[in-house]
Amino acid sequence: MGFYNKMSWVLAFLGFMFLGGISNANGAIHHYDFVLKETNFTRLCSTKSILTVNGSLPGPTITVRKGDTAFVNVHNQGLYGLTIHWHGVKQPRNPWSDGPENVTQCPIPAGTNFTYEVIFSNEEGTLWWHAHSDWTRATVYGAIVILPALNTTYPFATPDAQETLVLASWFKGDVMEIIEEALASGGDPNISDAFLINGQPGDLYDCSNETTYRLLVDYGKTYLLRVINAVMNEEQFFAIANHTLTVVAQDAAYIKPITTSYIMITPGQTMDILVTANQPLSHYYIASKAFVDGVVPFNNSTTTAIVQYNGNYSAPSTPSFPTLPDYDNQTAADNFTNQIRALASKEHPISVPLEIHSKIIISIAINERICPNSNCSGPNNNAISASLNNISFELPSIDILQAYYGGNNNGVYRTSFPNKPPYYFNFTGDVGNNTLYPNFGTRVRMIKYGEGVEIVFQGTNIIAPENHPMHLHGFSFYVVGTGYGNFNSTTSPKTYNLDDPPEVNTIGVPKNGWTAIRFVADNPGVWFMHCHLERHSSWGMDTVLIVRNGNTTESTIRPPPAYMPPCSKS
Question: Which Pfam family is one of those matched by this entry (predicted)?
């Protein structure tokens, strides 16, 4: 797992066994080494070289307890520079280790290393880490398991065992070339060739049934499954044949238990699920396939793993298969997500901000970028782009955090990201040519420390409407409302749930609908916000929130580490 403690090997062993290490007032300290390198993998009947961490797919799991800190030394032995993001970890006052390329740091050059300080605070459950440079996260990703703090326990009966299931994408081609070619041509990038569960495509793909991932279970035991959607461009339906799923957490925050036969999980989200092995001894398929509610290219295949009971019995020639909703079953997706409510218990309270100081309405759109010679591969011979409030985000050549912290912007970014769409129209109806062509630039939104913030994400019907999984770095937020059609500032807030809204870091904004979120801006720093469909982020569906320092040391960005990767071509 790549675990190294700087103390003696004895302490390292004990620290791993007891999730300890060297304790301090803020929890235990853990040390990991991540070695980025090219490794040959064979999938779908062919072999190719992919970028990996420590030679594995998925990469190593980081295991901590609530409130711990992990130092992860990333050794880049790959071919190009990149960064790592700790998805869902709030990193209080520490944007230096958040990871998005040219937002909070420049890439780690090939042949060098950089140590991230990953500070855990109130997260408890499952998160994940992934590369945050171009499309490198297609193969550079892994789980983060955050166990309850010492002397505390789960808000449910302690499971007999636990297992992590990471859903991901596999491309036969080189992922960097795929996105580079798409951006150059202006068209859609190639879709993936398979989905994976723990690095394996499963029985339904060519040359794959010998390596299908198997989850071995004992009859009568209850298992905590930590499900992560690391897929590049598709939401997923997920189910296990003949077994009931009890969802107990999402994005490392507990929810009121949901009993269901399937889940819908967007890229970036995690869910903790209890499953009791109470069926006749046999083999049962775990299956996952895309949920896509837009008219867009997507991978319509199904990945599988197998729940295999221990014991003496004749294995079936074909395991039982779960019933999954159709790929475009929006009702099935809504029926699941509408049930999600925060646990909101005495031991796991929530604190929804009721006083709002900054209200921001953000329209989400797919757009066009005019091609001078009308020879691009997108709509109307233009290039596809994407935007938030009609601003298509452009990454600067040096990172925004460095420019902001040093007080020397020099045109790296502008503080003019608008509080609302440039003008109002029927966002989800006949949009005509409204905001078809966005502005391009590096615009950020400044927020005062301690403000109550409400953001309303408004989907639009421009070009290709679909569900957008929006992710905010540096915070979890409360999803207080959602609906279809256009947000109405008078009537829509009357539908808000302020009692037990789920606290998440990634939320699917419904196709041609809206979602309202709230949070307190209590984490000073530079924080990226973007769609977690990778092609949308590449097209510019991103922005940055800068939370200013407060008046105390505890409300001020920490000083930068002694070394940060240099901002030069890598």
Answer: Cu-oxidase
